[in-house]
Write a structure and sequence with these properties.
This protein is mostly helical. The chain is 81% helix and 0% strand. The chain has helices at residues 3-14, 18-40, 43-60, 70-97, 101-111, 115-130, 134-145, 150-157, 161-181. α1 crosses α2 (18-40), α5 (101-111) packs across α6 and α8 (150-157) packs across α9 (161-181).
Length: 183
């Protein structure tokens, strides 16, 4: 699609022209799906992300400055969604792979909405955080709860990128150790 046609179609979408939006959706849905599926190898997650990508596209369209093509813009949203998904999956894998079986069984019960065990797990996690050094608490909170990027954390702490990654790694190891030994 040439840039003039893109400007026209974006203008129509901004004026709430559903037909124009549907045209963009039909044009890019399959290539975006293929891109996401190739990265995640999960058709259900790919379908879910396609919906999120187009939702984010609609929400951010007013800020589109025509500095890139519409295709590039959509694929950059897709790439960021894929990275977020992979990051969340990796965090779960790292955390859960280091836990003993009895804790995993407890977490499984929590997933099935057992309120008492959820409360116990929440209490245990708070207890673990209370026993961590302040810098470990801070980097874990920033990285895993608030989703701040390592580079941003490094800037906040006036540390290098690698030093910050090491600090996060040590904090995670300390969290797991305290989590496993706390009652």
């Amino acid at each position: 699609m040439d840039s003039q046609k893109e400007k026209i179609i974006i203008g129509k979408i901004l004026q709430k022209d559903e037909k124009a939006l549907f045209e963009v959706y039909n044009m890019y849905r399959r290539p975006l799906y293929n891109f996401v599926y190739k990265q995640l190898n999960d058709s259900h997650k790919a379908e879910e992300l396609i919906q999120d990508i187009f939702f984010d596209f609609i929400e951010s369209l007013r800020d589109f400055q025509y500095e890139c093509s519409l295709k590039t813009y959509l694929f950059s949203i897709a790439r960021n969604k894929v990275i977020d998904t992979i990051r969340k999956k990796k965090i779960k894998r790292i955390l859960f792979s280091s836990m003993p079986a009895y804790i995993l069984e407890s977490l499984t019960a929590v997933m099935f909405d057992d309120g008492l065990e959820k409360k116990e797990l929440s209490t245990k996690i708070k207890h673990v955080f209370d026993h961590l050094p302040n810098d470990y608490k801070m980097v874990l909170r920033l990285k895993y709860i608030e989703g701040v990027k390592v580079k941003t954390i490094a800037n906040k702490l006036s540390l290098g990128f690698k030093a910050t990654e090491s600090l996060i790694y040590r904090a995670r190891k300390a969290f797991i150790k305290v989590f496993q030994t706390s009652t």
